[in-house]
Amino acid sequence: MRAWIKRLAIATAAALAACLPARAEPMFASVSLNGADTGAVVSFERSGSALFAPWRELKRLGVQVEPPAGANAASPAELGRIPGLKYTIDDQAQAVALQAAPELLPKRTLGPEPRGYAQPDRAAWGAAMDYAVNIQGKAGWAGGQARVFGPVGVLSHGFITMATPRGVSYRRLETNLVLDDYARGRSLTIGDFVSTSPSGRTVRAAGLRLASDAGLRPDLFSQPLIDIPGEAASPSTVELFVDGARRYRTTVDPGRFDLRAPPTVNSRGELALVVTDALGRQTVTTRPFYTSSDLLRPGALDYALDAGWLREGYSTSDDRYREAFAAVSVRRGMTNALTLDGHAEATGRFRAAGGGMTAALAHEILMSAAFDVSDTAAGTGTRLRVSARREAALFGLWATYERRSGGFRELGRRAGDTPGEDLQVGGSVRDDRLGGFSISHTRRRVQDTRYALTTAAWSSQLGRLNLFASATLARDRYGGRTASIGFVAPLGARGGLASGGFDSGGGGRVNAQWAQPPPDDQGLGWRANGERSLRGGQMRGEGEVRYLTPAGEAALGVAADGRGASLRAYASGSVIWLGGRARVARTSGEGLALVETGEPDVQLMVENRPSGRTGPDGSLLLVNLPAQAQTRIGIAAETVDLSATYATDEAVVRPHRRGAVRVSLPVRHVANAQAQIFDARGDPLPVGSTVRLNGRPAGVVGFDSWIYLEDLRTENVIEIDLAEGVCQLRITLAAPPTGGLPQQTCDLVASRGLRRVRLDGPESGPGGVELLGDDGSGGVRRLSVLRLQPENGPRRGEDDLHLQRPGLRRVLVQLERTVRWLGFGDGAAHDPGWRQRDAQLSALR
Questions:
Q1: Strand partners, 533
Q2: pLDDT tens profile 720-779
């Protein structure tokens, strides 16, 4: 027994000797990992060719390994025994190079940096009237949209007026007030709106609608991100290509990574992930992709709450509001591949509810299913909808099935749907050489009636010639087959185009047209078109001349055929009230910006493209700017006189949706001069005395009482600090001085007074009361200080400050505060302007 114990002890000691360095020697060395310098110096232990390091040091270097059972972070680990880890020792450089397999390295997440939320610039108060007038023959119509916009939202009214020999009729389209909450991505509509459900059904109504609006937050993505895994064995460059165009590029350290890229809305194509190491070796991973707005990212919520009255007969003589209703619809992303939705709606006579799902299955298959049920006085009805779609770069397949029971009714329909079922299947094939081919088959059964329609289409490009063909087969009680073929070909390089078509009924036509669009800024454009029927030889022709100006667009056209000719006149544009006066412009579009330079005939650039010159008042109205997106507006320096100066030559604006911003890029002519100033006794001023011009520092007094003044205005106040007080004088200039100013005399003024304040904070110093700029809320009419004296008691000498505004402006300020309290309109990002005003008022007291 004792011999057995002795042999066991010898074996245990031999095993421990094999695990621990017999004669370990300490070694300090710098470390690189997979070719990248870690910048760390590690204390190793070396025994022959074996190298040991504490487990915690490996973790610190980025090697993701865990100590075995019974060991701790300080225990030594033999590097040669760790699977996937290799090393080499450079004794001369005292360095250790580690080579780790990708699975031993940390996994990183790559992708474009999320854009920070940037709230649109403070909206300016204004109004716009977009109009269009069309006269053809003895009839005509005029329509448009009038709106008032500002920091609280947009109030709009759409209309159309038609004139015929029988009389004139007026139709109201939509009238509503839209309040946007940019921070939360939601909008509140008061008035007319369109109610929608996840099934795609839409109805017109009036009342209240509170709905999420992803368009208010372009920095957020409601769809799932594209996730592509990859790995790098050494420091490498990672690039993402979408359909051959590079969308993202970065450098990565060795290890595994996930590249997450923003989606492309409703698109399909091929992704390519290219990893290039320092030696130029590339690893390319490709895969098809398909994204759809039907899917939401995990946690994303899309909702709408509607309440009001349904509208019938929109823009007709029977236009009216009828029964009250309420509806709610919600969509929520559960995972990247699953989105659930539900909706409910009710009126006084029926109830309806439903739910569904949209799922991304394997092989890029998008499947959706929904079940709806309704209950009316006539009974209960149901509807089942199932669809599937497979999209790839070269082909696509789809199928849709719907089954309805008797009595099923949707919101906005007086009668229920006819019971029956619909089935539609189809597919398409795309090839660069053979062109595109698609086929679809629709079958419908309604009670005892069956209907089927099969269509096929093909199109291809042969050189500069585009060819197309189609065929249709209908199976019902009438039956019928049709086929057609045609072509489209360019004519020269001046915008000409020829087309022709032939159908199985023996008919056909040929067409030729030429067009020259007008220049973007101002000029003429034209269009001419001629067509001939191959069956009867009838001919028809059209011609039109368009004139585009910054004030709008006008067109005059003529159309003629075998029955005669007719004339057509068209005009469109807008009238915009902004900046205190009315302006004419092209159709206003989504965003407006009034750029004020104070200098006429200054060329302005929008994203480095010429966009017009300022008018006599030194301002220019820019239309059709993208809403909620950055737009860079700048001054073309070559159009500014050399005697003028400006603090900045560009600005980045973010207009509200259907709103406007005011941009200040002041250009001023600089007048400089020197003057010799003496005190009231005629003595020179002390050298080095501080000089202020119009409230800003202007240097010091020089020898012989000379001062140099820069940027003189028409009215100027010069102040000089002396030991006995402040010496002040005023200088009025009718024209820029050509040389030095006449000798001046300044008088001492009382040193007691209120502090001057600037928009960026108060500045101590004696002087009168000034508000050196707008307070951020606009509409300041007058700033006055009144001396208050109590009727009874000692004089306190207090000053009362009054900030006066026009009556309408006071109402608008209260309206802004109310809407902000409700959570809409310009939010907290614009409150600093109000706080600056309050700080100024406090400082002036």
A1: 509
A2: 888 888 888 888 877 767 667 888 888 887 543 333 333 333 333 333 334 434 444 444
pLDDT at 642: 76
* 107: its two tokens: 């996994």
C-alpha–C-alpha distance, residues 292 and 270, integer Å: 15
Element (H, E) at 372: strand 365-376
- Mean residue pLDDT of the chain comes to 80
DSSP designation for 833:
H
One-letter amino acid at 175 equals T
- Tell me, rounded to whole angstroms, the distance of Cα 116 from its chain centroid: 12
pLDDT of res. 117: 66
Residue type at 23? R
Distance CA(151)–CA(124), nearest Å, equals 7
φ and ψ of 272, to 5 deg: -130, 120
Measured distance CA(130)–CA(572) in Å, rounded? 8
Extract the tokens encoding 703: 């020898």
List 496's β-bridge partners, or say none.
Answer: 491
In the structure encoding, which two tokens stand for residue 17, read together?
């000797």
Mean pLDDT is lowest, of 358-367, 410-419, 601-610, 643-652, for 410-419
Architecture of domain 226-291: Sandwich (2.60)
Where are any strands of DSSP class E within 182-264? 186-196, 202-212, 226-232, 236-242, 245-252, 255-261
Q: What are the extents of the domains in the chain?
A: 18-106, 226-291, 589-666, 670-751, 754-845
Question: What is the arithmetic mean of pLDDT over 170-177?
Answer: 92
Which of 421, 409, 431 lies closest to 385 in space, CA to CA? 421
Six-digit token string for 575: 């009238």
Same fold, 18-106 and 670-751: no
Domain 589-666 bears CATH identifier 2.60.40.2610: yes
Token pair recorded at residue 560:
């003629």
Fold category of 18-106 in CATH: Ubiquitin-like (UB roll) (3.10.20)
Collect contacts of 56-64 with beta carbons under 8 A, ≥24 apart.
61/31, 61/33, 61/98, 62/33, 62/38, 62/105, 62/106, 62/253, 62/255, 63/33, 63/98, 63/100, 63/104, 63/105, 64/104, 64/105, 64/106
Running DSSP on this structure, what letter comes out for residue 125? Answer: P
Residue 623 to residue 586: CA distance in whole angstroms: 7
- pLDDT value, residue 410: 82
Coil, strand, or helix at residue 813?
A: helix
* Residue 220, both tokens: 């957020």
The count of other CB atoms within 10 Å of the CB of residue 830 is 19
Residue corresponding to tokens 């004792």: 2
Q: Which residues pair with 547 in a beta bridge?
A: 524, 554
Closest CA to 136 of 167, 164, 166, 159: 164
Q: What's the confidence (pLDDT) of residue 794? A: 45
- What's the CATH number for 670-751? 2.60.40.2070
- Least-confidence region, from 162-171, 638-647, 763-772, 814-823: 763-772
> Which single residue is written with the structure tokens 């004794």?
91
As given in the structure block, the two tokens for residue 193 are: 């709106």
Asked which of 117-121, 160-164, 591-595 is least confident by mean pLDDT, the reply is 117-121
Distance CA 207, CA 70 (A): 71
Pairing assessment for the beta strands 202-212 and 226-232 based on DSSP bridges: unpaired
Q: Are 836 and 776 in contact (CB under 8 A)?
A: yes
What is the H or E stretch that residue 70 is in?
none
Per-residue model confidence (pLDDT) at position 267: 53
User: Whole-angstrom Cα distance, residue 816 to residue 153?
Assistant: 9
| pLDDT of 129 higher than 90 | yes
Neighbour tally for 147: CB within 10 Å: 22
User: Smallest Cα–Cα separation from 544: which of 519, 586, 515, 573?
Assistant: 515
Separation in Å, CA 651 to CA 121, 219, 641, 654, 665: 12, 20, 20, 10, 8
Taking the CB of residue 788, how many other CB atoms lie within 10 A of it?
A: 10
Could you give phi then psi for residue 102, rounded to 5 degrees? -55, -35
